[in-house]
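Handout, section B. The chain below has 360 residues.
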Amino acid sequence: MNNISPEFPVDENAVRIPYDRLRTFMTSVFLEVGLPASDADGVATAMADGDLLGKDSHGCIRVPMYVNRINGGAINKTPNVRTVKRTPAMALVDGDNAMGHLVARYSMDLAMDMAAESGLAWIGLQHSNHAGAAAVYASMALARDQIGIIACVGSANHAAPYGGTDILVGTNPIAVAIPAQDEPPVVIDMATTNSSLGKIMVKAMHGEPMPEGWVIDALGQAMTDSAQADDGILTHIGGAKGFGLSMVIGFLAGTLNGAAFGSDVVHIGEDPHSVTNTGQFIMAIDVSHFLDPDVFKANVDRISREMTGSATLPGVDEIRMPGTNSWRIFQDRKANGIPITAPLLEKLNAVADELGVAGL
């Protein structure tokens, strides 16, 4: 049995690019469009980390879009990311319209430091941007025996209120990372719609259809042509329950921070000029304030093994804990490189040629 079932099946003809090479390539691209050296490296690192985790929809595939937005004036290339309000357990961070990867990393570092003192920290982000794979930031907390949480207002609206047709709702994702001892960490990274827009982007790039249930038309009929997804309505996980979760995330990550939500959200894939005021919230929970970390992680291991060792339905090969597949993909890609398909390689090298930097 294949123990790795990536978010997207790996093309056997894909080129395996070493992590450091991919990160260096993206750094050179962002340097060329005007980001300072440390910021270019920070964005490239967060994106390559997403690819390492198998989040192919939120890593290097986003290079052309980010370049368009930077060149279009939608991003502040020399921002002053800063904390504008702080108490022992909360803070408000103004991203100054920086690349969202920089704002999210700054905020998670702040959250972890505050949680080490107070036990937990809640950080609201305003004037941020799309930050790539949410699991990258939630997982930062694992090394400090902390639980990391991040939730975001989607960077484009592609869904409607449950039962409606007006496109007013984003994918509004959430990621949580929980440390373990010997087992893989328990990590979720999910949209509140049945598919992220990024997954659909990947399928469209490769000419693949969408499964029924991801997108419907204005009459409620299933759409499967990934190239036409922008004309449809993304569906919520669990129907009305997913819509409810999406609303809660939107109010907590957007409205509470003075950031955009609902009709104020800018479609970053279609508008390379407008400022988004994207909102996120980040939490860090320091395990040691509740329980000895080794005891906690041993219990996470025990419960994880209890779940994975439980009886399976007919035809099911294995039960996996959330995050195990990404952990396996990470091990594979760290050792063997990140698979880049021919259509993606062509797009990345086209950007390189346009900017006059070395391609992959």
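Note. The longest strand covers residues 120-128. Compare this with the example in section A.
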